[in-house]
Write a structure and sequence with these properties.
By secondary structure, this protein is mainly beta. Belongs to the dTDP-4-dehydrorhamnose 3,5-epimerase family.
């Protein structure tokens, strides 16, 4: 049961596609296997699974993240429908700070996106009745739950919609320029 791993323009964010084995009945796929993923170099310890359902196409969730000590890495997959998934680098000192990557993740493709700690995450449903499952490396902590405005002009995310379905919380998230320095890359020591 192999894995296809594609590195995006921000190399810490990856698209992972587990092998599918199909026949006339449908298909079988291991969406997560600790030993197999560890062999591929992905050694995250997931502690919680989440399931999000969006009735309408054009539903935007995000951009969300949790801050230390409850920062989360996420492994996101779609079991029905399709999404445009976006990850924004919030790591101060990173050469890609404030930049983003995006990818279409869908049930049809069977692909997943791995988003490390230090990134804001958002998704836009591209089809009605879309269901998203995602694993996280820390439990949900309301006190550490933060966000970023989905349409921040400094991010220049090319969402294929101008009036998404949003929660009230997501309408009022701060701009990137107003965020505290939540994530710092360690500075390398001089020789």
């Amino acid at each position: 049961m192999g894995l296809s791993i594609e590195t995006l323009a921000i190399p810490e964010v990856k698209i992972i596609t587990p092998a599918r084995h199909g026949d006339e009945r449908g298909f079988f796929s291991e969406s997560w296997s600790r030993p197999r993923w560890h062999e591929a170099g992905i050694t995250l310890d997931f502690v919680q699974d989440n399931h999000a359902y969006s009735a309408q196409a054009g539903t935007l969730r995000g951009l969300h993240f949790q801050v230390p000590p409850f920062a989360q890495a996420k492994l996101v997959r779609v079991v029905r429908g399709a999404i445009l998934d976006v990850a924004v680098d919030l790591r101060q000192g990173s050469p890609t700070f404030g930049q983003h990557v995006s990818a279409e993740i869908s049930a049809r493709q069977g692909n997943q996106i791995l988003i490390p700690e230090g990134f804001a995450h958002g998704l836009l449903t591209l089809e009605p009745d879309t269901e998203v499952l995602y694993k996280v490396t820390q439990v949900y902590s309301p006190a550490h739950d933060k966000g970023l405005r989905w349409n921040d002009p400094d991010l220049a995310i090319d969402w294929p919609i101008t009036r998404p379905v949003l929660s009230e919380k997501d309408r009022q998230q701060p701009w990137l320029r107003d965020l505290p320095r939540y994530f710092e890359l360690p500075t390398s020591e001089a020789p």
